[in-house]
Amino acid sequence: MTPLPPLIRRQGMTLVTIVKNYGTADEERVETEAQLLNSNEAYFALEDPLYEGDHVEMPDPRGGTILKVAAEIEQNPMPASMKASFGRSNGYAKVKWGQAQPVRQAPVRRLNLELLHSEVISSASTLFADGQYDSAITEAMKSVEVRVRRLTGLELSGAPLMQEAFKPQGFKLDVGVEEGRSGEDERDGFFHLFRGAMVGIRNPKAHELAHGDDPNEALETLALASLLHRRLDIAESRLSR
């Protein structure tokens, strides 16, 4: 990495750490040197991977370290005709510090099997752990089908079962949570989700040779089955009233 111009370096350099994606699973740390002008500003080499919003960890004169955030970065490229006179430096970036914002983290940062509905875990978790992803998906969707049949008493299966159970006009299971027109749209949407899960996932997996080898895609499909079960929880609670 090309250093800061000698004129700046002579004023004294401090070892600091640029922290990108601070506080997240993707956090990256890059050590570099900077001239700390005062409590509000600093000089960095133009090539340093520092951008507005990045955090910088630096020594605290009182001991330990402090963390600051780059609020403004002013780039000052060195003219080509002057590079030889300034140690081949490409220039410098003047950084103004701002206040570090609290790290915002989603309550659930990664999808995992243990967070899915208990019906999916009981029907598919062992198969998923054994790498039998197609079978895990089939059993998870079958658990949805079996539960709908049990709740409705219908002697149907697959798409015809979902058609009768969730058809917008005359549904037997109410999986909506919204009121009025929004509720009607919601029920219509879940009608297509339940029916589509049987047509697009359950039936093909049951009648074709297993070939799924992507655990991420399998887990996402199990998450769909989990969502359908959670809506069936709502419908079942209404049936028991």
UniProtKB/TrEMBL annotation:
Residues 116-232 form the Conserved hypothetical protein CHP02391 domain. InterPro entries: CHP02391 (IPR012654). Pfam families: Hypoth_Ymh. This is TIGR02391 family protein. It comes from Nesterenkonia sphaerica.
